[in-house]
Design brief:
This protein is of the alpha+beta class. It has one domain. The protein contains four helices and four strands; from the N terminus they run αββααββα. The chain has helices spanning about 5-20, 60-70, 70-80, 115-140, and strands at about 35-40, 45-55, 85-90, 95-105. A four-stranded antiparallel sheet has the order 1-2-4-3. A hairpin with a 5-residue loop joins strand 3 (about 85-90) and strand 4 (about 95-105). It is globular. The relative contact order is 0.19.
């Protein structure tokens, strides 16, 4: 077991190391769509690359999510075959959102440095594909709201 301080230090080291190993400006929150953001996620047991729908207006979330659902086959066949659409994803805070994500399927823990490198490579490959998809269909996605 790790103390809170040790765990926090490892989390910080994980993300700092990722940024230094793969220095690149990612799209993430810069989609110009409120509440529509790409994220890297990693914790003690799993990692993933996500697209979260957290617009303050629920109808906008639903319209955006439905727009992405209409592109699901393209996203899965041409960019991310392992993509999962979850219209009722629970965050650690207890809040429910819509999330589209690709899980990292290898053994991983943010507390185990031996698992970091493969996860970093997964992050880079997966987020790159997510970004390529977004840029290709950005105008269509933005038509939803």
């Amino acid at each position: 077991m790790f103390s809170k301080e040790e765990s926090a230090r490892l989390r910080k080291e994980f993300w700092t190391s990722f940024g230094k190993s793969f220095p690149r400006k990612w799209l993430l929150y810069n989609t110009s769509i409120k509440g529509f953001s790409f994220k890297f996620q990693a914790d003690r047991k799993k990692a993933s690359v996500c697209l979260d729908f957290e617009h303050p207006e629920e109808i906008a979330n639903q319209l955006l999510y439905d727009q992405l659902l209409s592109l699901k086959n393209i996203l899965a066949s041409e960019y991310l075959p392992e993509v999962i659409f979850d219209d009722f994803f629970e965050l650690e805070s207890g809040k429910f959102i819509q999330r589209i994500y690709v899980p990292y399927n290898k053994k991983f823990s943010i507390h185990n440095k031996n698992t970091w490198r493969d996860c970093y490579e997964f992050f880079v490959e997966t987020m790159t594909q997510f970004e390529l998809f977004y840029y290709e269909y950005e105008d269509f996605i933005k038509q939803a709201i």
